[in-house]
Amino acid sequence: MKQNLTAFIDSDFLYYFWKSKITVMAFFWTVALLISGIFSGWLAPYSIFDASSFDLMNSELPPSWLTGGDAHFWLGTDVQGRDLLSLMLYGLHISLIVGLISVGLSLLIGVLLGVLSGYLGGLVDTVIMRFADAMLSIPTIMFSLLISGVARGILPKALQGEMAMPIIVASIALTGWMQYARTIRSLTILEKHKEYVLASKVSGGRSLHIMFAHILPNVLSPVSVLATLHLGLAILTEATLSFLGVGMPPDQPSLGTLINEGNQYLFSGQWWVVLFPALVLVTLSLAFNILGDWLRDILNPKLR
């Protein structure tokens, strides 16, 4: 294990990582936001779910370094007197959960369908790929809005708040699996004609065993790039849906919900309620895109 760790430290992977300063910055910023979001319950100065932790007398306070600010509220407060820093940490937690789960489901669906399509071919391949093409022709936001609208129309109002997160996760996952499927399908078609697959067939290996024990491990390398890029897009999609009012409810604030609420009071002078969540959202998505682009370059020797 010590030898493996030494080999990793001396590998080209870390060399190219430390060589790219912007990638290093994006990585550490992403790690900082992930830690802040995951441990928001411990890091947040106040609990946003505890009514006794905020006071209407403290509403609309600007950041602490501005005139009228309060040192207890570093980034100011919203119209209800809630600490904005605490709201952002809890909102980041929800946005990350939605993004990670939806990307994981998209990856699972796309990889499974991609392997089946590439290996089996024929009618199975045609049906899956034509369905993927049809899905790609529909804008992501429009399809997500459609799913959210249908789900909200079916569910009773009492359950809409509780089911808001599963609905958003499902809508994002169902609009993101196609890229994984198309990529894995292309690689599976190349792999299934190689000698190790033919040898497994001759020795009596079953199709499922060949697909998932032999082919799948050899076609997963591009998935890390796609997943990293998709994660930033998924978080932006959730924020967009919440901003449009069909995402997370106000009692479960995400970054998009905070931007939506702050936008209503923007012209009254509460610019900080919009600005700080928007900066976190933009920089987080940008960091994921930078990391995804770097992974794509490092995994392709021709692009180094």
TrEMBL record:
Q: What name does UniProt use for this protein?
A: ABC transporter permease
Sorted UniProt keywords: Cell inner membrane, Cell membrane, Membrane, Transmembrane, Transmembrane helix, Transport
Kindly give the membrane topology term recorded for this protein: Multi-pass membrane protein
Record carries keyword Membrane: yes
User: Its family?
Assistant: Belongs to the binding-protein-dependent transport system permease family.
Instruction: Answer whether the UniProt record assigns the keyword Transmembrane helix to this protein.
Output: yes
- What is the superkingdom listed in this entry's lineage? Bacteria
Query: What is its subcellular localisation?
Result: Cell inner membrane; Cell membrane
**Record InterPro entries:** BP-dependent_transpt_permease, MetI-like, MetI-like_sf
